[in-house]
Amino acid sequence: MEAYAQVLLYAIPGFIGLILIEALYGWIKGEVNFRSMDIIASLSSGLTNTIKRILGLTVVIVSYGWVEERVALMEIEATWLVYVLAFLALDFAGYWNHRLNHSINYFWNVHIVHHSSEEFNLACALRQTISNFFGLGFIFLFPAALLGIPEEVIAVVGPLHFFLQFWYHTTYIPKLGILEYLIITPSQHRVHHAINDIYLDKNLGEIFPWWDRIFGTFQEELEDVPPVYGVKRAVRTWNPIRINFQHLWLLMQDAWRTKNIKDKFLIWFMPTGWRPEDVKGKYPIEVIQDPYTYEKYDTPASMPLRIWSWFQFGLTLFLMLDFLLHFAEIGFPSLFYYGGFFLLLVYSYTSLMDLDRNAWWIDLIKSAYGLGIIYFMDGWFVMDSWIPGGSMAMMAYLILSPVIVAGFTFGEVKSYQKLATEVAHS
Asked: Which residues pair with 59 in a beta bridge?
């Protein structure tokens, strides 16, 4: 985990740098596909995923190493060719895992956050899941285990394979000629993120497009069908934690509400979007029928609220770097306390971005938790060792934050909620 933390210290600034370059290019070209709140939501989602990954909060039912030890047909050395085979095996596994996520109700919950942005840019690539409770990668990596590809090779190639999926989340790169047959390109991945009927659940490959072509899930981007991005059941929130569990909550509600005992079990394993008949009529859910007339989710946030939201994200990013830089010094179980604060912080400021009337007390809980950390740990983890007065600065922030959020909640949020109520009853 410590080695992974060191890799992220370079990867996170690199990703953010590329996002800024893309935004600058779009602004210069006059084709901006960035919205302030959407970008903050995407970046914040990436940070929550980082916390979950680095703390290892996924139950690995069966590890790849355990399978490889028992089924390998041969023992091979870690040569360059083995690394190539491992990369291909990971991509093959990635295709089928991705296809499973798009095909089955329960597994769609794991993947929905990645598709939840109604924009398509490098930032949306960072919308990664925190709702995958069980690691099932060993199933699709079975061919690699049969070949005897060592566990340490998979461990090295895995992060590289994951990071290489970042670059093609952009609208600014056109079709790439012969490369369209060799690698996944931005054009192919635009299709994958689109909710147009012809594009839905297509181009599931991660690095190579061969699997889509072989298994019948390939669709070329059409000039006369511009992609529209998002999910068919729009998430209508900036809060990445809510997005991660929104579909799961719907499944739980439907399983509880249906009178059909069989459907209570089947709903989890049926195709994505399936609902019991007796629930579907009684509890309808809006599904986007015409992507071209659908109005994107937005909140009428004032400039002060936008500035405050960016400040909150900036603080979260700074604390993330503190977390990664001093990973070993902080140690367990304090790392879990730190991780809990991250989740509360992100939930708090993205709730305010949604103009949620509960934003103030959520922020109050976050600040109380943070002040508790400072009190019981005699400071903000190890921050004072590299920033003199760091704990005092954190304390000042935690005291002032609920005051500022209260101002927004009882002013801007209250006005918005009143207007929304009036519109709903008109």
From this structure: 134
